[in-house]
Amino acid sequence: MRTWSVCSALTLMSVSVAFGYQRNESSRLSIKHATDAAAANIPTKAVHTTVEEMLSLSRPEGLAADISSQAYQTTRIEKFETTRWVLEATITEIVKRADGDFYMVIEGKSGAKTVVEAPDPELCAGSHFLGEIKKVRKMLDDKFHPTAQPIKVNIKAQFTGVGFFGYQGRTPSGGRTNGARLMPALDLKISD
Question: Residue 151 and residue 104: Cα distance in Å, rounded?
Answer without folding.
Answer: 10
